[in-house]
Amino acid sequence: MTAHPPHRFRSALFAPGNQPEVLKKLPRSHPDLAILDLEDAVPDTQSAKQQAREVAREAAGWLAAHHPEQAVYVRLNAVHSPYFSEDLAALTSELAGVVLPKLERAAELDEALHQLAERGLSHLQVMAGIETVAGVEHAAELLRGPVTSAYFGAEDYVADLGGVRSEAGLEVLYPRSRVAMLCRLAGVAAFDIVVTKLRDEGAFYEDAQLGRSLGYGGKLCIHPAQVGLAHQVFSPSPEEIKRAW
Amino acid sequence: MTAHPPHRFRSALFAPGNQPEVLKKLPRSHPDLAILDLEDAVPDTQSAKQQAREVAREAAGWLAAHHPEQAVYVRLNAVHSPYFSEDLAALTSELAGVVLPKLERAAELDEALHQLAERGLSHLQVMAGIETVAGVEHAAELLRGPVTSAYFGAEDYVADLGGVRSEAGLEVLYPRSRVAMLCRLAGVAAFDIVVTKLRDEGAFYEDAQLGRSLGYGGKLCIHPAQVGLAHQVFSPSPEEIKRAW
Amino acid sequence: MTAHPPHRFRSALFAPGNQPEVLKKLPRSHPDLAILDLEDAVPDTQSAKQQAREVAREAAGWLAAHHPEQAVYVRLNAVHSPYFSEDLAALTSELAGVVLPKLERAAELDEALHQLAERGLSHLQVMAGIETVAGVEHAAELLRGPVTSAYFGAEDYVADLGGVRSEAGLEVLYPRSRVAMLCRLAGVAAFDIVVTKLRDEGAFYEDAQLGRSLGYGGKLCIHPAQVGLAHQVFSPSPEEIKRAW
Ligand SMILES: [Mg+2]
Ligand SMILES: [Mg+2]
Ligand SMILES: [Mg+2]
């Protein structure tokens, strides 16, 4: 059913949906998933969103033609946002999947699935974004077929909570733990939080180790340099592969 | 409906309900809420509680007359305690609110609300005390209208749990995180745990920072010197105010 | 109803069910519970399990005769494993209890209780093993009569989660906190995680302190030297005993 089933979910590299040159470069770092972002990376206006839809649609076509081996997803705006229905026009049948951010209740997921089906896009893989207080609280009802992967978004979660992000990250230990656990229970691949310090390899590496210990299988990446680091951390070692046999 | 709606919930300063001179000094540090405590700060005997009710009632009247700008709450004993019904006699209509400690189930909250209504005190704001294992587990059913604020009480929680309080506080990270999260979900103002080291400004400041990162909007205070510190930590910075606009 | 009600649940010392000499030495370190293990400590084959059943049954008889003061439990294999029904043959009426590992749902517990009843073993105390993602998620339905104690198993939990165990242990802080809390709510004695570093007294002591702060009343032990340390940490101090009166 899936056009480009990614063999693994260790890295999902985002690029702004309104930047055609950046989108075309997504495959260079060989991420397991390349995500054309219509949401957080695009300004919150109708005109900016509309431009991004067109750019992303064209980039998706270009990527399918030139990098057929690259699994490409598009991140739509939230189902309850004023952009969702029109965002669907950016989706092409060559895509591997779609990301539904800020999911909070089963009804939103059902609505999104319904609209995808109406457009003949039921074959797309679905990644669920769990990144609000309500989303974490109701995650169990959001992590179910046809959702095949999910991410926990710490920045948006803490903003919604009214908290503050800290170096140590204790403020997200509970929700981050809980989302990984529920993903496991649902058989859904789990992507760990973004590391916003783009030029700090050590910070990414350390945070990815924590994410892996918590049960995540990969990381959201927002810079190509993060992809290789994610693959290092989330690739099972030869000992682990041996043990599994 | 509310006599003295506090503009903010950054600090709630407690004083023992049986100490008239201390009660009258509550407004000096300008706490967002001043709480006349009939519960933990008063010995667990009928005579001590009765004396405290009378002292607190008189202090409430005095505060309303001399410091009408000060929002004043009274903390009653737990609904399931032998003191609750008689504690209601300490409440005056000039109060801004009432604190219901050690809430554990919806039925207890309903019972308290019923008794408040019977005495014509339905206009009082209600602060819920979440400070037992059962209270944390059932917090979702306790954080709802007319509850407008709540606090997490770490000392009582850990005593009820049969655990031990530690410097690092890892033993309360999960319940402390969860209560803040459920408060946010319910739209209820969240007060963070007491810092018992009265003369350690650094300890209070650090713990308040953690509380803020976890989503709390203010702190329970048990010493006037803690109030100013709480306001420092929980007042949004100019940058944050700008961002919100 | 109980043959050997242990006065306390501070230590539960495991020994491999297939090693008769080790089993007979279990009482030497005076653990509150001695557990003859048919599960993790015995290879995962029918023949090894069968041999262990016979060895454990004989050891149970020997311990009852020579150390009648020692409370002895047998850990069976998981209810949903291919070994469970035959494991019941290893149980003798002199035992104090039985450990049901990797419990995940109420139906499994009910099935185990049913089979115990059929064999006339309803008088045995039951310890529940909570050590999988599903077990933690559904722990509330597993911690109920006749379960009198439970343990959280970090190694198996993290393996099931697909995570990695770390020195700091942040990856189990949430489930470890939650299991202790639910045990308290259910009135069930809670045993904390195994410390696998057998020769590191400091590591055991520190981890036991954390377990105690989280509300655990004792520790699973896998080496006799851990028993005394557990008793040190989990015995209430004279001050605590005084306070309770
Ligand atoms: Mg986001
Ligand atoms: Mg209290
Ligand atoms: Mg185990």
Automatic annotation (TrEMBL), chains A, B, C:
It comes from the Bacteria. Substrate binds at residues 75, 131. Residues 10-224 form the HpcH/HpaI aldolase/citrate lyase domain. The keyword Ligase does not apply. Pfam families: HpcH_HpaI. Keywords: Lyase, Magnesium, Metal-binding. Its cofactor is Mg(2+). InterPro entries: Aldolase/citrate-lyase_domain (IPR005000), Citrate_lyase_beta/mcl1/mcl2 (IPR011206), Pyrv/PenolPyrv_kinase-like_dom (IPR015813), Pyrv_kinase-like_dom_sf (IPR040442). One of its GO terms (biological process) is oxaloacetate metabolic process. SUPFAM superfamilies: Phosphoenolpyruvate/pyruvate domain. One of its GO terms (molecular function) is magnesium ion binding. Gene3D superfamilies: Phosphoenolpyruvate-binding domains. Mg(2+) binds at residues 131, 156. PANTHER family: HPCH_HPAI ALDOLASE_CITRATE LYASE DOMAIN-CONTAINING PROTEIN, LYASE BETA SUBUNIT, PUTATIVE (AFU_ORTHOLOGUE AFUA_4G13030)-RELATED. This is CoA ester lyase. It comes from Deinococcus irradiatisoli.
